[in-house]
């Protein structure tokens, strides 16, 4: 390292002479923005201009502002060199860090929410710090990458880690004192979990102990028989299986006989996970190996489930199976509430999450090379043995993956339990009721923490355990050869399940559609357009607002997602795995948890954002960022690294390579990332339900409140508008992708 | 400031004790090399020998764990790839799929902020050089494999690099085209006077294009020399077997004379220190005749009449020649009979083998093969 002094690793060669370094421009931005824009604000309009709060006005009274602007002037001077030395890089790093600290200090001393000027100044110093980190030689990446890394670190820290941390803190800090009382009270409350039911004669605890014991012995027996030849070598494995089975037996029994949100959420998640995965696997197998045209039907269904707000199926369930439901009441003459509660929620979730399982599993099934099965057959494997020894072991990681994904989605789902829960508590709805009904932030935080730990636990299991276990690498290359057809005994039940599932889906969507055209479903089924007309006065404005906010949020979601994908996937720097881990973690944060975190974190002080449109946009961005990351990583995997290396050996800087090589190749993926972020924001509910105000309402929240107040028809009408609009967007997307994709696809596989 | 130079400026490259570790795996182990300027040098070895890693280290695409790298008289050890006076032709060509031929070739010049007019002349010159004039507007996907390869070459040459790195550039071409392109490549490199560093695992390709060949194995340089030196005087058993086919037999050296199991071999080249040594004989340097017959014609055998007795195990008719596997006291030997003037000897025929000095070499002491393995 010490040998050469001529150049530092970041410089762009050749003709940068005569130009001014990037820090110069950032420093200029700080000076202009810091002087002309307000450092803080009073109202909820983040963009408001307020002459009395501009830097120019503050010069005489606030020393941090003065000092920060002086530092910016110094950086303007230092940053004019295009290729500063390591020493001056280090000086600039120190000055810009000080500048950030001064900006924060000013905000805290003033005590008002931040203004645009402070944002510009802070981000300006942040960028200079990142660039200087590279100049200083401490971070061996290019200046642009250094700035990008710092930006991402700050954004993830402030908008993901800080809200979650605040939620954690709120769960144990009550009125300035550390206490575990809220945890204790919540965990003991029958709403959370009631184990020993005083109204029954049997002891649930005793029962659970017996079941656990029985499960343990059963597992022991099975293991002993299975490994009878080599007991010594498998002793550890046998012991582990026995203990795990006993624990599972005990907890399942406890959950089954118990009551409360924990019990309901976990049992629901497990059953929905099992059923959705089984259906998803069946449909995936059918799509690949059956003569029935399943694939062409599954496509629209997965699209439809993606563009449907999460609770619309719940709404449809009320239409079909509710007290006045078409099937339960009209056809069967029942007056039942059986579908309010876990059963109804479960059915709605299975309908919503089966396409997800299908999408995961169809990739796995497709990447099963038929040649492998043919090889096994030539090695005299029977059909059952083939499945047992080859197909199933290869499918297993994918199946587990789909199962865990569905479990996470079910645990985190908020809309369906809210609409169909029928007063039965679930974890995500308890977060909501604790804050909106019982006005207890601490209790809401406790529920949030529990929910977060569960989903993150499942996510970590999925992420680390399964990644090791997976043999199938999805190459996107279709394998040749004909996969063996399914045995009829398997195929026909699968087809029946598919037909039933499809009919149910069609029926539910149709019911929402027709429900929006009748006066009052079940009571007065005369045709009317009144719900749509009513939308003109109250719903349309909200719908357009929602579309505007979702569109604004889509751009940063996709860009931040792609930047993270690039930085994590292609750059090498200390802290990379931490960044990767945190951004991956955001996949697993339930919307409700994020919403409560935002409410708690951005409610006061310099970072106050509640009541603004910005907080809704930010909630969209950081909730949908994982979509961008995922499609970015997938797209980057398709691009051979030698393209970037070729660009590098042709004297291109990382930024040039990103701009001229990667970005054009990623355009289709960026477009779809944008569109999906938009669609997800339009249909989001859980993370924004706490954040809306009468002046910043959102379509989904409005539908939910209409349904809650009995205006089901109007809710259905707005849902239909929402779904139709999303369908148009997705169709447009397909057209655009088809156009650009044809070029890009041909280009990439040349 | 631009790195574009007039022709004939190929710079020498020097590696000093370069080591690259991936965790506990040593990919390149203390490699020191002096690559002369304006020559074509090949890094040759089996897959996993560290040749591509060495090339990428020179390019700056891999960081190194220890050692120093010089191009010309400048140390470039810590310079990023985008600042080294090299360009590279990738195995996959790595053409930018969204840019047409012209823009692909112009890409590097644009990064150097060369003027538009200059770019136009330089690109058409480079395309003419590789015989692709007129294809400027095509996308890479509209070109054949051979044309893509030439675009990759033009894109590298247009930068007038001091060193041109070629990573198995011909491996994606069919056999016929490969032969033609490698000759063109060789001619271009000599005409432009650039230093070429060429990675391949194909020894015939290496022999055909190189001034100097560097044989590598397990991250260590085995031998550096001209193709002829490597073929006639391999430094060790590995090189002997990797360049061409080789029989390795145990020989006794007594008083300047070399004996293989009672057959006094006509004076082979190599240092004749006494003791047990390893003798390399190329299969085409062994004459084969049925036992009892005298040497057929004037093959220039001074030791006619004597020879190593053996028995044919297997024979393969090859048209112009015949290939035999012969079992002898010194192990199984491969024999290529290039002047086939009678019928091919069937398996089981007792034969006498004699060795010609031009195809023999006494390997340096301590560099012999594990002859038990060689005999099997």
Structure keywords:
heterodimer, A: 750 residues, mainly alpha, MetI-like fold, 4 domains, globular, disordered C terminus, B: 376 residues, alpha+beta, Rossmann fold, OB fold (Dihydrolipoamide Acetyltransferase, E2P), 6-stranded mixed sheet, 5-stranded antiparallel sheet, disordered N terminus
CATH level 3 topology of the largest domain in chain A: MetI-like fold
Shape of chain A: globular
Strand content of chain B: 25-35%
Total helices of chain A: the number is 28
Uncertain segments of chain B are 1-6, 296-304, 372-376
Mean pLDDT of chain B: 86
What is the CATH homologous superfamily assignment of the largest domain in chain A? MetI-like
**How many discrete domains of chain A?**
4
Largest sheet of chain B: 6 strands, mixed
Category from helices, strands and their pairing of chain A = mainly alpha
Number of strands of chain A: 4
Helix content of chain A: over 70%
Fourth-tier CATH superfamily name of the largest domain in chain B: P-loop containing nucleotide triphosphate hydrolases
What would the principal axes of the Cα set say about the shape of chain B?
Answer: elongated
Report on the architecture of this protein.
Chain A contains 28 helices and four strands. Chain A is mainly alpha-helical. Chain A has four domains: 16-138, no CATH class; 180-194 and 259-500, MetI-like fold (Orthogonal Bundle), CATH 1.10.3720; 200-258, no CATH class; 516-750, MetI-like fold. In chain A, the strands form two sheets. Chain A has a two-stranded antiparallel sheet. Chain A has a two-stranded antiparallel sheet with strand order 3-4. In chain A, β3 and β4 (524-527) form a beta hairpin. The longest helix of chain A has 41 residues, at 530-570. Chain A is globular, with a radius of gyration of 29 Å. In chain B, the strands form four sheets. A six-stranded mixed β-sheet of chain B has the order 6-7-8-3-9-10, with helices on both faces. In chain B, 24% of the residues lie in helices and 32% in strands. Chain B folds into two domains: 13-232, P-loop containing nucleotide triphosphate hydrolases (Rossmann fold); 237-293 and 303-375, Nucleic acid-binding proteins (OB fold (Dihydrolipoamide Acetyltransferase, E2P)). Chain B is elongated and about 80 Å long. Chains A and B meet through α25, α26 and α28 of A and β6, α2 and α4 of B.
């Amino acid at each position: 390292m010490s040998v050469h002094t001529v150049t530092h690793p970041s410089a762009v060669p050749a003709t940068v002479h005569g130009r001014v370094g990037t820090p110069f421009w950032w420093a200029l931005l700080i000076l202009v923005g810091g002087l002309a824009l307000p450092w803080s604000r009073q109202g909820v309009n983040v963009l408001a201009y307020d002459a009395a709060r501009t830097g120019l006005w503050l010069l005489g009274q606030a020393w941090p502002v003065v000092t920060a602007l002086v530092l910016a002037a110094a950086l303007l001077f230092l940053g004019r060199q295009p290729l500063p030395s390591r020493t001056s890089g280090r000086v600039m790093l120190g000055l810009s860090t000080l500048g950030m600290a001064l900006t924060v200090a000013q905000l805290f001393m003033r005590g008002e929410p931040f203004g645009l000027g402070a944002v510009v100044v802070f981000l300006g110093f942040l960028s200079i710090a990142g660039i200087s980190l590279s100049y200083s030689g401490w971070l061996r990446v290019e200046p642009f990458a250094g700035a990008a890394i710092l930006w991402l670190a700050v954004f993830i820290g402030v908008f993901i880690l800080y809200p979650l941390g605040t939620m954690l803190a709120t769960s144990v800090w009550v009125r300035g004192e550390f206490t575990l009382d809220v945890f204790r009270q919540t965990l003991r409350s029958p709403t959370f979990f009631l184990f020993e039911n005083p109204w029954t004669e049997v002891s649930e605890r005793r029962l659970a102990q017996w079941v656990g014991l029985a499960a343990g012995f059963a597992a022991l027996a099975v293991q002993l028989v299975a490994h009878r030849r080599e007991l010594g070598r498998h002793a550890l494995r046998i012991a582990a299986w026995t203990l795990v089975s006993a624990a599972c037996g005990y907890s399942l029994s406890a959950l089954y006989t118990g009551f409360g949100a924990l019990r309901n959420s976990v049992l629901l998640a497990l059953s929905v996970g099992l059923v959705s995965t089984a259906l998803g696997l069946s449909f995936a197998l059918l799509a690949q190996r059956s003569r029935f045209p399943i694939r062409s039907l599954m496509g629209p269904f997965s699209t439809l489930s993606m563009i449907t707000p999460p609770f619309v199926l719940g709404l449809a369930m009320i239409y079909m199976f509710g007290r006045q439901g078409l099937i339960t009441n009209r056809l069967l003459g029942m007056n039942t509430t059986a579908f309010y509660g876990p059963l109804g929620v479960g059915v709605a979730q299975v309908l919503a999450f089966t396409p997800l399982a299908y999408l995961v599993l169809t990739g796995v099934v497709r990447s099963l090379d038929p040649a492998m099965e043919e090889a096994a057959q030539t090695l005299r494997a029977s059909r059952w043995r083939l499945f047992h020894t080859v197909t199933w072991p290869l499918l297993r990681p994918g199946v587990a993956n789909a199962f865990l994904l569905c479990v996470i989605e079910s645990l985190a789902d908020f809309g369906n339990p809210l609409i169909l829960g029928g007063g039965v508590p679930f974890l995500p709805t308890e977060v909501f009721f604790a804050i909106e009904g019982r006005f207890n932030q601490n209790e809401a935080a406790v529920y949030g923490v529990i929910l977060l730990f569960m989903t993150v636990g499942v996510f970590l299991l999925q992420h680390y355990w399964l990644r090791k276990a997976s043999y199938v690498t999805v190459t996107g290359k279709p394998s040749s050869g004909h996969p063996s057809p399914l045995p009829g005994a398997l195929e026909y039940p699968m087809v029946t399940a598919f037909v039933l599932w499809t009919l149910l889906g069609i029926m539910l969507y149709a019911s929402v559609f027709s429900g929006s055209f009748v006066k009052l479903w079940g009571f007065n089924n005369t045709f009317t357009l009144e719900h749509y007309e009513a939308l003109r006065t109250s719903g349309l404005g909200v719908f357009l607002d929602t579309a505007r906010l979702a569109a604004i949020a889509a751009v940063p979601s996709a860009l931040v997602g792609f930047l993270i994908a690039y930085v994590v996937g292609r750059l090498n720097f200390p802290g990379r795995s931490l960044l990767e881990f945190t951004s991956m973690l955001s996949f697993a944060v339930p919307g409700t948890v994020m919403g409560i975190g935002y409410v708690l974190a951005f409610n006061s002080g310099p970072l106050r954002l509640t009541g603004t449109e910005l907080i809704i946009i930010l909630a969209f961005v950081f909730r949908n960022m994982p979509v961008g990351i995922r499609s970015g990583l997938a797209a980057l995997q398709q691009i051979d690294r030698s393209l970037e290396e070729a660009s590098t050996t042709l004297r291109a800087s990382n930024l040039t390579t990103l701009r001229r090589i990667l970005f054009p190749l990623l355009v289709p993926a960026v477009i779809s990332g944008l569109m999906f972020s938009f669609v997800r924001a339009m249909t989001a509910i859980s993370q924004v339900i706490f954040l809306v105000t009468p002046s910043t309402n959102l379509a989904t929240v409005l539908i939910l409140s209409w349904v809650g107040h009995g205006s089901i028809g109007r809710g259905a009408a707005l849902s239909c508008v929402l779904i139709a609009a999303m369908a148009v967007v997705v169709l447009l997307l397909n057209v655009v992708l088809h156009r650009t994709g044809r070029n890009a696809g041909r280009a990439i596989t040349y | 400031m631009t790195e574009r130079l007039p022709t004939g400026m190929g710079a020498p490259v020097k590696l000093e004790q370069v080591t690259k570790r991936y965790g506990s795996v040593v990919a390149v182990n203390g490699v020191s090399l002096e690559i002369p300027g304006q020559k074509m040098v090949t890094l040759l070895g089996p897959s996993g020998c560290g040749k591509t890693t060495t090339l990428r280290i020179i390019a700056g695409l891999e960081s190194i764990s220890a050692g120093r790298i010089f191009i010309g008289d400048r140390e470039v050890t810590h310079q990023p790839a985008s600042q080294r006076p090299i360009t590279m032709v990738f195995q996959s060509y790595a053409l930018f799929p969204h840019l047409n031929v012209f823009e692909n070739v112009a890409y590097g010049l644009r990064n150097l902020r060369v003027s538009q007019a200059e770019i136009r002349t330089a690109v058409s010159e480079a395309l003419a050089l590789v015989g692709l004039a007129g294809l400027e507007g095509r996308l890479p996907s509209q070109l054949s494999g051979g044309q893509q390869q030439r675009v990759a070459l033009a894109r590298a040459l247009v930068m007038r690099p001091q060193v041109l790195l070629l990573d198995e550039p011909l491996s994606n071409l069919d056999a016929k085209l490969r032969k033609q392109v490698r000759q063109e490549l060789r001619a271009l490199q000599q005409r432009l006077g650039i230093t070429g560093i060429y990675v391949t695992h194909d020894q015939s390709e290496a022999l055909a294009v190189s001034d100097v060949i560097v044989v590598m194995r397990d991250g260590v340089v085995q031998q550096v020399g001209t193709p002829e030196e490597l073929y006639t005087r391999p430094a060790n058993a590995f090189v002997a077997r990797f360049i061409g086919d080789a029989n390795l037999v145990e020989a006794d050296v007594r008083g300047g004379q070399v004996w293989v199991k009672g057959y006094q071999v006509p004076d082979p080249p190599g240092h004749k220190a006494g003791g047990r040594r390893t003798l390399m004989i190329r299969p085409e340097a062994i004459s084969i005749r049925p036992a009892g017959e005298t040497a057929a014609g004037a093959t220039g055998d001074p030791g006619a009449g004597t020879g190593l007795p053996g028995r044919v195990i297997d024979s393969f008719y090859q048209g112009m020649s015949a290939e035999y596997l012969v079992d002898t006291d010194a192990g199984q030997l491969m024999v290529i009979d290039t002047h086939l003037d009678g019928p091919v000897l069937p398996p089981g025929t007792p034969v006498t083998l004699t060795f010609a000095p031009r195809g023999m070499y006494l390997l340096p002491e301590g560099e012999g093969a594990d002859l038990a393995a060689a005999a099997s």
